[in-house]
Design goal:
alpha+beta, Pantoate--beta-alanine Ligase, Chain: A,domain 2, 4-stranded antiparallel beta sheet
């Protein structure tokens, strides 16, 4: 971090953030109960609480979060807006390995065979992107493409593969506004997530802009 030019590092131990008797939590309703929230009950309550504490303690002008955790970033943005926090939440693009796999600390849990298989997530998203570029706008059609690519990988077990509204994270039937193609897939015992952001830039055309 010194080599990256870091001036100060705030890295508290857990008891400093959660002292004995801690009993207050932040809950962002609605958004927290879908997709990741459904698969990992209580996860986003913990995320919202610790981020709220960190923002209150540090009082930053900007806080940066990765778009790979798209639902998490959306929840933090909502919490910041709802509770009138001063920090501006900046959502950063996904960073990928040369073979397309989204960078994640969880990638370290993959063995060589699983690491190769894990590229199926980005390959599935790429296939969906190609379908959309060819004019497909029906979500069920796109989900069929996702399931076909993911299902062809023997080490992959799909938790979810959906197309959702970028604001509400509710499923959409047809691509007509900003949305995400979101994936959660087990490769062996390791659960990986990835997404493709779709932005219909021009309201008077059928053009889509992809953020992969």
């Amino acid at each position: 971090m010194e080599q990256a030019g870091t001036d100060l590092l705030f890295a508290p131990e857990p008891p400093e953030i959660y002292p004995q008797g801690f009993s207050s939590y932040v809950q962002v309703d609605g958004l927290s109960e879908r997709l990741e929230g459904r698969s990992r009950p209580g996860h986003f309550r913990g995320v919202a609480t610790v981020v709220m504490k960190l923002l209150q303690i540090v009082q930053p002008n900007f806080a940066y979060f990765g778009r790979k955790d798209a639902q998490q970033s959306r929840i933090i943005t909502q919490m910041t807006r709802d509770l009138n926090l001063d920090a501006e939440i900046v959502v950063c693009p996904i960073v990928r390995e040369p073979d397309g796999l989204a960078m994640s600390s969880r990638n370290a849990y993959l063995n060589a065979e699983e690491r190769k298989a894990a590229t199926v997530l980005s390959r599935a998203l790429d296939s969906a992107k190609n379908e959309m570029a060819a004019g497909v706008r029906d979500s069920l059609q796109l989900q069929t493409v996702l399931q076909r690519v993911l299902g062809a990988e023997k080490l992959a077990r799909v938790d979810y593969a959906e197309i959702v509204d970028a604001e509400t994270f509710e499923p959409v039937l047809r691509l007509s506004k900003s949305c995400f193609v979101v994936l959660a897939v087990y490769i062996g015992k390791t659960r990986l997530i990835d997404n493709l952001y779709i932005d219909p830039k021009a309201s008077d055309s059928d053009e889509l802009v992809f953020h992969f």
